[in-house]
Amino acid sequence: MRFADIIGHSELKQQLIHSVLENRISHAQLFLGAEGTGALLLAIAYAQFISCTQKKKDDSCGECNSCLKFSRFIHPDVHFSFPVSPVKGITKPKSVDFIAEWRNALTQNSYMSFLDWTQQLEIDNKQPQISVDESADIIHTLSLKSVEGGYKYIILWLPEKLNASAANKLLKSLEEPEPHTLFVLVSENYEHILSTISSRTQLVQVSRIAEKELTHVIEKNYELSLSRAKNISRLAEGNYNLAVKLALKDDALENSTEPFLAWMRLCYSLNYKELILWTEKMQEKKREGQKNFLANALDICRECVLMNYGDNSLVRISENEMDELKRFSPFITVNNANQIMDKLSKAHYHIERNANPKILFLALSLEMNKLLTQKQTENATV
């Protein structure tokens, strides 16, 4: 993975390159970037540049033996660590048990999301994490000599998935690593990382991909019109992974709000029979799908607040969605907006921690009914 293969981030790429050329390589770094920004790819490209035997002034060569191994994710001194979950035959899973699936997932979609990875693992509603067994495996790996005589790399994807025992076991290695060892942690959510971990790393902030750059890539790679590429880029908010999914799905720009609005109609009318059927359908979804539904609901409510009280130029939805939400947005008022978004956020938190989805979504629907049926504007129509 060369820097040239990654969309955008030209300034950050130069900073990383200069830090290597000037021999300012911190032993523990945290690449922090939202989903789809390419933070993981930047971490891999950074390690590849360090190991490249024929460095150029602005990138790795892509042709030396080291670079060729990096391009296939098989360099013997690069050890990937990522969330996994028990499957049939593996009760104490470690990353090494799923390295073939990991390489395949990265090859197919290098900007993959956590949901994409869980689907690759085919683990249903289990929550992948990084366990203490994984930490023990990392420590053992670091005790071994470098195969090719250079740096040894631990590229740990989503340290927010480290449980407390696993994190504590890694602290000494993070603080006092073996010589020529480089930890690169790649996170999407700084607040969910244990402070004992984040405090021992040097932060590398990865911004969202610029809308102009994302538009250009989507337009070129998927042969779309400029207007459609712009609309996709605006909706994706710097997330290339999401932009690709929108580009590949013909109705993606038309119906992304409809499931939410259908739920809101059920909540408002308080049709118990239909609500119970709806919660049963939500229960059938995988846990990541349930979380995504709530995250999308939260985003839509924020857009409604902007439509009602903010600057419409900041609203990031399609024209068709705008028409649909104009009828609903009056129900999101100064009196209930904070409460609605707080309820959605808490529901997302509890789903992530394995709450019973049927009970949670039914209780949430009843709470939504109370908030939506507060005194509304005269022309409000769900």
What does this structure look like?
The chain has helices at residues 10-21, 39-51, 65-71, 99-108, 114-121, 132-143, 164-175, 195-198, 211-222, 226-236, 240-248, 258-269, 272-284, 287-309, 319-328, 337-352, 357-372; strands at residues 28-32, 78-81, 152-157, 181-187, 202-205. The protein starts with 9 loop residues before the first helix and ends in a 10-residue tail after the last helix. The protein has 382 residues and is α/β, with parallel strands linked by helices. The chain is globular and about 70 Å long. It folds into three domains: 3-205, P-loop containing nucleotide triphosphate hydrolases (Rossmann fold, 3-Layer(aba) Sandwich), CATH 3.40.50.300; 211-248; 258-372. It has 17 helices and five strands. A five-stranded parallel sheet has the order 2-3-4-1-5, sandwiched between helices.
